[in-house]
Amino acid sequence: MKSYYKPYSIVVILALILIGCTPNTVPLKGKYTDNPTEFTSTKSSDSLWSTIRQIFSEKGLVIRKIDTEKGLIVTNKTPFISVYTQEDKDGKLVEPQAWVVLQKDFTKKKVWNPKTIYSEWTIQINEMGSGVTKIKIDPIVICTYYPNMFTSMEARGQSTGKLESLIDSTLVSNSNKVSQN
Asked: Quick check: is 74 in a domain?
C-alpha cells in the first residue's frame, strides 16, 4: 500500500509558508521622484560631462556606459544598502541625507529589512541650442527581501532627490529646474 500523504504534506507546508509571507505594506507618504528630473544649464555639455564623472567618482558610482553621441551616462547597478532610509509615522525620512527611500514591508509586526538594494542612474545630456543644455536624471531603485529560505521578494524604492540636488547644486549653479514629470 502506497502512502500519498508525504508528498501532499510537503506541498501544503510550502503553501502555508508562502502564504504566510505575503507582506503588509505601508505606502510612502512623502513626495519623491517617480519620474525623471530635468534641469537646464547654460554650461557646455563637455563641462557637464566632466563634472558628472567627477561626482560619480567621488560618490562611488561606477559608470557602465558612456555614449557621448547620444548624451548618455548609465551607472552600474550600485549597492545602496548603507544609504537607504524609510519614513517615520509622520512621513518624514528617518535618515534625511539618504539617497533612497523604501516603503515598510512587514508580516505579523516583524519589519522586513532589505538584504540588497541596487540603483541604476541614467543621465541624459542634450544640447538644445542657443547655449542651453538639458540634463535628465532617471533613477531605478530595486530592493530584495528574503523573508525565509524559500522566498525572495523584490520591491521598487524611490530616489529621495538628494543625488539630483547634489547634481543641480554642483554642476548647474546657474540652472533652471524644468520639471519633475
From this structure: yes
Residue 168 is part of which domain span? 24-180
In 3D space, the residue among 78, 49, 79, 51 whose CA is nearest the CA of residue 66 turns out to be: 49
> Measured between alpha carbons, how far is residue 157 from residues 22, 58, 96 in Å?
18, 23, 15
Q: Contact at 8 Å (CB) between 21 and 40?
A: no
pTM above 0.70, yes or no: yes
Residue 94 lies in a domain: yes
In a domain, 79, yes or no: yes
Strand, coil or helix: 13: helix
For residue range 98-156, list pLDDT tens digits in order: 888 888 877 776 777 788 888 888 899 988 888 888 899 998 888 887 766 666 778 88
